[in-house]
Here is the input.
Amino acid sequence: MGMKSYWDYIKKYRSLKEYHNIDSAIKHKDDVVSIDAANQQLTKLPRQLFNLHNVISTNILGNRFTTFPIVITKLSQLEEISFASNDMRYVGPEIGKLKNLKILILDFNSFSKLPVQIGELSNLLYLDVSMNKNLKSLPSSIANLKQLQELHIERTSINKRDINLIKALLPNCVVITD
Here is the structure.
């Protein structure tokens, strides 16, 4: 019996043993499935992170990233990422490599746009880009996210016409707006 809702995944991730120190996680690479490096004033991630083949959940909330670290896209098993409350302005096309991603949290950043490749995340169930005040639109490839159950776009600059288009493109998705 497969998991049906992103809440099932949230429960799963919360039950995992988390590593709070990235260097320690790298030393125990075969045991690591979850990294919680929240609020550590990080500006970059070590290249050795790509050796953590079993990681399915990362929380990098509340750090000082300005761009989405490409090394994260080497973690091919990732199902959940939170980069909330950083100062990110850019996500590169490499994000499309995260084919297993189910939960992507990018709220409270400084995005003005997202890459077209966001539409390649075909297993995505939950996307939060709220509180990105400069975000004026989402790429049309968002229509490819047929599994998406919840989309948070509150406190963005996306206009009502585009919000209605998003709702039409994703009829099975709850779109949360202001």
Remarks:
- The chain has one domain: 6-176.
